[in-house]
Amino acid sequence: MAKVKCPKCGNRNVAEYLWGMSAFTEQLEEELEAGHVVLGGCMITESDPKYHCNNCKKDFGGPPIKMNKDGSLFDYAIETRKISFYVGGFFGGYINTCFEKGESDCHYEVKPGLAIDEYNFENNRTGKQELSIEEWNKLINKIYNKIFLLSWKKKYNNSDILDGEQWGLEIQLTGKRQLNYYGSNAYPVYWRELINIFRPYAKNAGITLRTNGNKMMI
Ligand SMILES: [Zn+2]
Hints:
Layout: E1 14-19, H1 26-34, E2 37-41, E3 51-53, E4 59-60, E5 65-67, E6 73-75, H2 76-79, E7 80-89, E8 93-101, E9 106-111, E10 129-131, H3 133-146, E11 155-157, E12 166-173, E13 178-184, H4 191-204, H5 213-216
Bound molecules: zinc ion.
């Protein structure tokens, strides 16, 4: 069985697509019956999904490529220029992490916002830090292929709680295109994994990336 959870509903009852011609073996039939695999057919495109959720019936995963209106392909992994993430609250302030791909090199920066009680000035290495292209590519891979960002909702909102914690994730793409995700006391299925992506960079800048979200995750 696929060792992933569905980014839409969180269910782990997920089947992996099998694309192309398949020989019908007994094992394949068993896998199909058990819902571990699903046949995708023979028409293979650049943006076929990798997984199918048996619970909510949605597809996800696969290359982060979508077709433009004119039929050309848009590869999010290649076209991503900047990744900005913040989490925090009105009273404690917001921690910001920002990753940017320049013409020839990549950088990141972590800012503690107003949370100066957490801010160890001696250990903190703020300001722009260099990021190798390998690190950037790893980051991109995690964002699109491990936490399935393109399958997230744009807004996660729990209006029962006032103030509390807010977060935002903004991806800047070439051609002024953007992806924006926002949450207020509500979190995506892959929240913990998202925090784990940014936590080492915050730590490197002497900042502890804290969130109420991990407690609230099932
Ligand atoms: Zn699902």
